[in-house]
């Protein structure tokens, strides 16, 4: 009889431990999700922030990931803009500023690895400015096209990136 009681006691302890462990695991996922939401809630465009930093709760890593994504999207946009730059001054200006943005983002990425927050913020600010110049060129020329739409999205993401960098 005593053997059966010990078995039941062990089974109860294991079941209770498993339940506590499962609660801890699921609650940590909720905490991580809320940290990402809270981090992105500081940005001007949270809906653009969340997909880029999902499952990241460290502001430094979130900023680094956003810089990487922004750099990749800018390179794609640069290739697209290169096809249309002949004969359109706004697109030519945008091509030049997107090239500058790629340079600034690469330096921001290097700065974040070196933990040089001041330099990183300087390069990110320059990138935000580059995207703004591109968008303004289209507004001044009264043009609306896909290049402008892409530049607007890149400017929004760069603004988010700069905001995330202030959380470091």
From TrEMBL:
InterPro entries: Invertase/methylesterase_inhib (IPR035513), Pectinesterase_inhib_dom (IPR006501), PME_Inhibitor (IPR051955)
Family to which this protein belongs: Belongs to the PMEI family.
Source species taxonomy: Eukaryota, Viridiplantae, Streptophyta, Embryophyta, Tracheophyta
NCBIfam families: PME_inhib (TIGR01614)
Domain spans labelled Pectinesterase inhibitor: 31-164
SUPFAM superfamilies xref list: Plant invertase/pectin methylesterase inhibitor
Keywords, comma-separated and alphabetical: Signal
Record Pfam families: PMEI
Protein name: Pectinesterase inhibitor domain-containing protein
Tree of life domain: Eukaryota
Hydrolase in keyword set: no
